[in-house]
Amino acid sequence: MKIIKKIKVDLGDRSYPIIIGNGIYGNKNLYRNSNPKNSILVSTKKIKNLKNSSIPKRFYNSEILIGDGENFKNLNSCESIYKNLLKNKYSRDCCLLAYGGGVIGDITGYVAATYLRGVNFIQVPTTLLSMVDSSVGGKTGVNHSLGKNMIGAFYQPQSVIIDLDSLKTLPKKQFNAGMAEVIKYGVIYDKQFFEWLEKNKKKIISLDRVSLAKIIATSCKIKAEIVAKDEKESGIRAILNLGHTFGHAIEKNIGYGRWTHGAAVACGMVIASELSEKLGKLSKNDLSRIKNLLSYFDLPIKLPKKLNASKLYEAMKNDKKVLNNKIRLIIPKKIGECFISDKFSKSTILKTLEINRDQ
Ligand code: GLY
Q1: Residues 146, 263: one domain?
Q2: Which of the listed residues 115, 164, 183, 188 has the most CB atoms within 10 Å of its CB?
Q3: For residue 240, how far is its CA from the centre of ligand 1 (angstroms)?
């Protein structure tokens, strides 16, 4: 059992630690502000059956298992959790342990934000994507039939517990999806980190422990820094959405679940980078470095041929960042630096989508 790194998300009296280590689920000190008698594990059957890692039963009183996958990220799943908590008379001092990937973390966080007007919860992410992105920063919520993540709340956990051992059973496709978000941090914020990823990609793909700890800790540190500056996304936090406006439109048009979220974000990141290069901002060299690194992790850098540019554009208009009917995009200026702009005509966006489609 070894704690490798602790990172603080600095939000005044709502600050909390992100603890990264190997085999650390048995350490009782990590379950901050929770009482095992009043703690409820929220997870799925599939995750609970993983052999390599599990939260010892002595840290919770009961468990609620919901369906696995994005299709279950809705108010019906919340309702089944509320019902269970109410039937079992869990009071305001209860604590939910969100044990799983991004879907479990987002649903559990939203239930924690709303059950009895707010109870404690702890994020225990088991996928790379949820370790480096969704478990940190307090975005919680569910999908609505009219849009992804449209119902939700900003609500911070008590702590985030990241056990690298749980990555051992993660399917390669899911690991690569997480890498899209890791690479994103290099592109938007940290040139040296991007260079480090380029140099160490072989070690990362072979799940070298030291390299995994480094990519997760650096990603969480960058995210913690941005969230501490702008918790509710009224400014800089929006840069964390590089590739996401295109990505969400791809997911919607291709059909949810066909591509991983990370794959859609990767492709979106490339389109945003192409747009930047065409506008004379991003250099050709930086553009190809971004594409090469994403391709190394088997992430798509072209839109599927069958996707229609106008339909993608329509879906982009439903993005939460749209203001005054204008699509706002995060655009890389160079590796390690980006900007936000809404100064794109419909025809520029459509043209960029067309040239990024598989021929
Ligand atoms: N996933 C983007 C954010 O947490 O702001």
Answers
A1: no
A2: 183
A3: 5
DSSP 3-state of 346: helix
pLDDT at position 325 is: 82
User: Stretch 137-149: mean pLDDT, rounded?
Assistant: 92
Domain region containing 276: 172-355
Q: What is the mean pLDDT of residues 177-203?
A: 98
Neighbouring residues of 234: CB distance < 8 A, sequence distance ≥ 6: none
Residues 165 and 190 grouped into a single domain: no
What pTM did the predictor assign? 0.95
Instruction: Compute the average pLDDT of residues 207-229.
Output: 97
Our count of domains for the chain comes to: 2
Give the three-class secondary structure for 275.
helix
Residue 52: per-residue pLDDT: 59
Q: Are 155 and 118 in contact (CB under 8 A)?
A: yes
CA distance 346 to 327: 9
Ligand 1, atom nearest to 241 Cα: 2
Return the bridge partners of 286, or none: none
The pLDDT of residue 48: 81
- How far apart are the CA of 125 and the centre of ligand 1, in A? 15
Same domain, 72 and 120: yes
Tell me, what amino acid is at 307?
L
